[in-house]
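Service request form, structural biology core

Requester: graduate student, group of Dr. S.
Request type: structure prediction, single chain
Budget code: on file
Notes: please return the result as structure tokens.

Sequence provided:
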Amino acid sequence: MKKRILFLILIFAVVLLRTPLFGFLFSYKIITEREPVAEIEDKELKAAAGKKAGVYNVEDIIQDAQEITASRLGFTFEKCGHEINALTVSQKANCIGYAAFLAAVIRYELRQQNLEDQWQVRHQVGNVYFLNTNMNRYIMSAFFRDHDFVTMENTQTGETVALDATVYDYLKINRIRLR
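Core staff response, request fulfilled:
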């Protein structure tokens, strides 16, 4: 009985503390940056991204953009495009498409709130490290050679926020740690 209770407490703690635990175990190193893709043209996506009434802050924008990305895309290992307006139709993306889509939604929402001058959104390409070991050393597939994610830098304070849309979609982890 005691083992069962301890096991349940452990499971509950892991679920509750998944973001700090993920941040402790995994980190991302930026290799390069991808050029921003086209602006959002899809009217339905614009309506979803602009659905909140009134002024809201960057934290709200990040949360909203991650939820929109997770609800509109499904992950695939297949090679596919990462053009935003095509992704709204196919609804399938790999990590490149997820990052491009998330970055575009964040840029759109920042513009809607007149915050685009305060935050610079970048589509990054990097390596994922597990306990300070580059995971690429152990995964030979070309698909896993690198990983795409998004960074936001506050142009006034220098604060950087890093986001991985695929990790958010599967684990609901809303921040990642940079090396």
